[in-house]
TrEMBL record:
Gene Ontology MF, one: ATP binding
Name by which UniProt lists this protein: ABC transporter
Gene3D superfamilies the UniProt entry points to: P-loop containing nucleotide triphosphate hydrolases
Primary subcellular site in the record, as a coarse category: membrane
Domain ABC transporter: 14-244
Domain of life: Bacteria
One of the GO BP terms on file: response to antibiotic
Keywords: Antibiotic resistance, ATP-binding, Nucleotide-binding, Transport
Location of the protein in the cell: Cell membrane
Amino acid sequence: MLEKTSLPDPDNAVVIRSLGKQFGDKIAVNGINLTIPAGSFYGFVGPNGAGKTTTMSMMTGLLRPDHGQVWVHGINMWESPQQAKSVLGVLVDGAAVFPRLTGTQLITYSGLLRGMDADVVAERVPDLLRVMDLEEAANKMVADYSAGMTKKVSLAASMIHSPQVLILDEPFEAVDPVSSARIRAILNEYVNSGGTVMISSHVMDLVERTCDHVAVIDKGQVLASGSMAEVTDGVSLEDRFVGMVSSEQSGEGLSWFRT
Ligand SMILES: Nc1ncnc2c1ncn2[C@@H]1O[C@H](COP(=O)(O)OP(=O)(O)OP(=O)(O)O)[C@@H](O)[C@H]1O
């Protein structure tokens, strides 16, 4: 179910063609093609080390690909990075969080660095702190936040400028179920209003319930992509995922791990 190569269409939120990255001998991403339709809630799944973070880092201009191209709403990421990045909100593993800022400062500076009007930023910051349930921690340093709180403040920072496309690497990891449900409701509203969201996750049930499109990758290659119905083809995403990925992997149990 690999997608056909086509010219980038600005109506698509993101188009990726032949994207590749190698670290030493390790081919992390091996010629990925993906098309993310505008207005879709797109899940990106794959086992540990499959190449999700590397792909998302290249899609968002944080990591230069060895080869291949990325267009965001028709703008070439690596030819016009500033223009392409202006339509993106990004949460990617390993990106700097500036732990000595407070939550309020982190979200505020994210908006100001995006060139937003200070009054608009000041209006939006309390809204974001409220929906992320971070009001009480607003004036604490991010260094003192829990893992889930850090995830939520980073997510708020990625949303402050109301971008056209959100690329979120594991946005719900370590986030409690109440916050997770609230954030998903906000992202759903955003998608219903025409925004595009791509999330990576290991929680198949969450991806199946939340996303309308999905891509499965393993060993740096796309195994399947398309609408959720096309990819799952009548079985659960978890069964489909395990079926696809385990047929690629071999391995026996631990014969010595017994009581
Ligand atoms: N900076 C780096 N230097 C060397 N190898 C790297 C680097 N970044 C990633 N890799 C390797 O590239 C492969 C893909 O890693 P990546 O982080 O993209 O996977 P992932 O799908 O996001 O995994 P996970 O689900 O565990 O977060 C892995 O084998 C990883 O060890």
